[in-house]
Amino acid sequence: MTLATALKTGDLTQLPSRRDEDWRWTDLRGLIRQVPPASPAFDDDVAAGPFDGLAADEILFVNGRQRHAAASGAGEVVALRFVSATEGTAHAAAYAIVVEPDTTLVLLESHEGQAGGYFSDVTLDIAVGEGARVERIVLVDDDAEAIDVVTAEVDLAPGATFNQTVLTAGARRQRIETRVNHPGAHANVRLDGVYALAAQRHADQTTIVTHGGVDGVTSQLTKGVVDDQARGVFQGRIVVQPGADQTDARMGHHALILSDKAEVDAKPELLIFADDVACAHGNTIGALDDEQIFYARQRGIPEAEARAMLTQAFLGEVVERIEHEGARAVATAWVAARLGRAE
Amino acid sequence: MAAVKQTIETVAALEKYEHGFTSQIDQEFAPKGLSEDIVRFISAKKGEPQWMLDWRLDAYRRWLELEEPTWAKVSHPPIDYQDTYYYAAPKEKTGPKSLDEVDPEILAVYAKLGIPLKEQAVLAGVEGAPRYAVDAVFDSVSVVTTFKKELAAVGVIFCSMSEAIREHPELVRQYLGSVVPTSDNYFACLNSAVFSDGSFVYIPPGVRCPMELSTYFRINAKDSGQFERTLIIADKGAYCSYLEGCTAPMRDENQLHAAVVELVLLDDAEIKYSTVQNWYPGDPETGKGGIYNFVTKRADCRGDRSKVSWTQVETGSAITWKYPSCVLRGEGSSGEFYSIAVTNGHQQADTGTKMIHLGANTRSRIVAKGISAGKSSSTYRGLVSAHPKAKGARNFTQCDSLLIGKTCAAHTVPYIEARNGHSVFEHEATTTRLSDDQLFYCQQRGLSQEEAVALLVNGFVKDVLQQLPMEFAVEAQKLVAISLEGSVG
Amino acid sequence: MTSMLSIQNLHATVADKPILKGVTLDVPAGQVHAIMGPNGAGKSTLSYVLSGRGGYEVTEGSATLNGEDLLALEPNERAAKGVFLSFQYPLEIPGVPALTFIRTALNAQRRARGEDEIAAPAFLKLAKEKAAALKIDFDMLKRGLNVGFSGGEKKRMEILQMAMLSPKFLILDETDSGLDIDALKIVSEGVNALRAPDRGMLVITHYQRLLDYIKPDRVHVLAAGRIVASGGPELAHQLEAEGYDKYTVAA
Fold first, then answer.
1. DSSP class of residue B226?
2. What is the span of the domain harbouring residue A80?
3. Residue A156: inside a domain, yes or no?
């Protein structure tokens, strides 16, 4: 039941629907009436990506096809780009990344819509070796009419560190899913997300972290802002398997709804099969704090500016957790641009 | 410290499941299995009018088309709906009866359970002690309802559902199925077809019910299901507090309990609904037997400023599947849900609530405490939603799970759907285990391990126990302690 | 002497409940007036009505600053005209560093007044200078505004903003609440440093203690929504000794 299977077979019944528990708020079956034609090869130049200049190596996919030969593998900072360049067509791509033990990788991943109304499906396999360190920054800038599903399966070895921040402005339907197999064993996971949605855009950030062994840490923080008739979805599931004691897992999801027609749906789940654990989640959905707005206005800041400032600060808490300085700057500017503020 | 002492004494005097006795009472049954004929049999047995029979048959036909739900985090062998008695009643003459006419054997059962059915016995108690009017439901029928005259004097109708269908058809026709529609879900639909008895309450406008109302459910017969139906209507400005208790004998077979409870609240009405559910949980070692408790409970706050509060202490049943819900339709209406779910042995509980905010400035509060021990699993599943018109809606949810032992499981599955920019939803959840440090501290001060567990667990569930009427709180506290016996070792 | 702040027969309600029932008060430039009164007298309401917080409805009367109607303006417009309210409980704003917040406010006020924005180096220099005077660690200004600050630190941050924004008229709402004696001294010194011939102040307090440090020219007693007594600084001492009973009874 995946978009990729449906694209390959043309069989619409393969699409996940709202009847599938994990897709209840991201219905593809009810939306897609027919599968568009396969994307053609695209050989023209594509515009520079959002992380241009930050990475030594670049791995570029256009319309689901890998364009460059694989990167040298020596670089610690790699740009991984998925560009959709042809309107009204569909493509799928899969890529695997192996991070050797005790090495460091900063993965600057971008999903770039450079055409209208495409279907894109990307599947990533990321294996992080013992003691290795990965920071994955995912910036998703889709076309308003696009349908995009990005699924990453992350396998961690003992002592590995995996830090991730997903930033998205949504699409017609969009799902960014990350599944982490957490071995415990002093491996450390940070899974963050930001969504800033307007118009009729939809974005779904789904994470599943499965703790399989003792001594694991997971920290999650996702924040979103929805305006107009947009819809934000957050599904976070933390599973602690039998015997995965001393697990410390925390999840937070906080959203602001800026308009009366926008919607946020959240399902922060804890499934615990071990007893010696400390797990918690918190979820808040609401509007900006009137008291804070009044305070700022009392100091002379006009209301619209006060709202924008507070909204950016709200999302900024997540962006601040990005370690790579260049990526953090890109993310900060991206958030400011989404909120209509120059930085 | 009275509560602590109480708990310690309780723990010291524990039995495994103290309500597990069977009573030899002469009973009559409908033939096993389910068909249109059985539905007709039940309806005829109760002397129901044609409209009621038609309603049941319609439900039965719809039920045939539904599929049993599978989404709950519970697992059980397939239920054979043809291997159950849908009607079991003590053999005796039909019609309304006074306490004197009730079979002394049945009275003995209730006495053993500690349920006061004799009004004078209640009256002879300490002066000023709260009084309880009781509707006693034994398998498929209500055997007696107490204090009816005194309640009638202030206009409160409190009787069995069978009697309500005969005596107050206009109220029953207006409200039955108006909160939980016939085909709402598989088990509610089944109930609509075969419900046997239950309680009916109507509180007229502006009346504050002068005493606690309560229903005591007892499954006694072997292989029988209990399908009671409760309907409470609080008219404008009315108030009542309603208590519900449940027990069953120990049997190796699983028994089905699929009840439906509907609450209707008009403007400014308030209902407090408390449940202490202690159905037989099955054998703690083997997991054999026990009640399947698949219940649909829903309150419809139709009136502005109406208020409903569900409090439940769930310690029994092999499987619990239950989500007392609040439909907050009236402007400024509010719903509360306070829950303690204790699972031990092989018990499975998937329980929680739904708070559906439809009206402006509606409020809801959820405090759910789950305790899992043994090989059991406990899931909190809850939905909080605010529709576009529910401007100013507020929800606060606190879900805490406590794990005792390596082989149990605790899950938290909240669904939150916010559809307007003027609502505030807050949700917090934690999962922890009983702290070794705290246990040791208690033991160092002289408490046994079990006493220490009871003490700490009482602290964990205190917020919810406080919501129960005093007598129920004491009983609930004992139950929690009993249910956790042998969980640490 | 012409008054700077002039309040005439001000009536205001909160959720349709009358709180202010005809307040008349004049504060000339260069003077410090204190408003004292029992709990529930309407002291905080007066400060919120003057600064334009939502939820307070003026049903009658007027309030002007240098002859200009305050009540018709948005809160930020009043701020740009020079009204500064020091909050009894200053808000925490996570994610917005104090420096960013103050610079944004200062420039917004300047723009509203048709002045040029302040250049970054000049702003930083000013901030360092004022922070040092108030014994505020400059690094604290890089953290989220008031986040994790103690009560005393928050009040000092209010005074710092006051010093940076140099408003014409200050309203101090229960500035002494939650302060120990050392913090009270620092805060009072900060306020006193801002006393100037062209600046007026309204000090709202329940206790006389604060007035030992910020010496008022006039003291008014607000009870049940009206000014029921006015006098010199000695009135504050009298209230300290006798309490508010006779006013609450009279009102």
1. B
2. 36-287
3. yes
Tell me, yes or no, whether A263 lies in a domain. yes
Can you spell out the DSSP letters for C147-207?
A: TT--HHHHHHHHHHHHHHH--SEEEEESTTTT--HHHHHHHHHHHHHT--TT-EEEEEESS
Q: Which CATH number fits domain C3-250: 1.10.760.10, 3.40.50.300, 3.40.50.2300, 1.10.260.100?
A: 3.40.50.300
pLDDT of B404 over the 90 cut: no
- Does an interface of 3+ CB pairs under 8 Å exist between C and B? no
Counting Cα atoms < 13 Å in the Cβ hemisphere of A228 gives 10
* Chain C touched by A72 (CB under 8 Å): no
Contact A295 C93 (CB under 8 A): yes
pLDDT in tens, A212-260: 999 999 999 999 999 999 999 999 999 999 999 999 999 999 999 999 8
Chain A, nearest residue to C146 by Cα: A292
Six-digit token string for B82: 């043809």
pLDDT of residue C85: 93
Mean local confidence (pLDDT), B130-148: 66
Best mutation site among B71, B400, B417 for testing chain A: the one with the most A CBs within 10 Å? Answer: B417
Cβ contact, residue pair A272, B411, below 8 Å = yes
How far apart are the C-alpha atoms of A13 and A18, rounded to whole Å?
Answer: 12
Cβ–Cβ gap B431/A243 under 8 Å: no
> What mean pLDDT is predicted for residues B179-193?
85
* DSSP string across B355-377: EEE-STT-EEEEEEEEEEETT-E
Domain range summary for chain C, segments of one domain joined by +: 3-250
Predicted confidence (pLDDT) per residue in A131-178, tens digit: 999 999 999 999 999 999 999 999 999 999 999 999 999 999 999 999
Provide the domain count of chain A. 1
Alpha helices in B198-275 (DSSP H): none
Q: What pTM was estimated for this model as a whole?
A: 0.84
Which secondary-structure segment (H or E) carries C248? helix C245-250
Query: Phi/psi at C156 (nearest 5 deg)?
Result: -65, -35
Cross-strand partners of B19: none
A313: nearest CB among C78, C91, C93: C93
Distance from CA of A241 to the nearest CA of B (A): 9
pLDDT in tens, C230-243: 999 888 888 888 88
Q: Which residue of C has its CA nearest to A308?
A: C96
Collapsing DSSP to helix, strand or coil, A87 comes out as coil
> Touching check for A308 and chain C: CB below 8 Å?
no
Let me know if residue A13 belongs to a domain: no
- Whether residue A57 lies inside any domain: the answer is yes
Residues of A in Cβ contact (< 8 Å) with B420: 257, 260-261
Whether the Cβ atoms of residue C236 and residue C216 lie closer than 8 Å to each other? yes
- Interface pTM, i.e. ipTM: 0.88
Is the separation of the CB atoms in A112 and A49 below 8 Å? Answer: yes
Question: Chains near B, with 3+ CB pairs < 8 A?
Answer: A
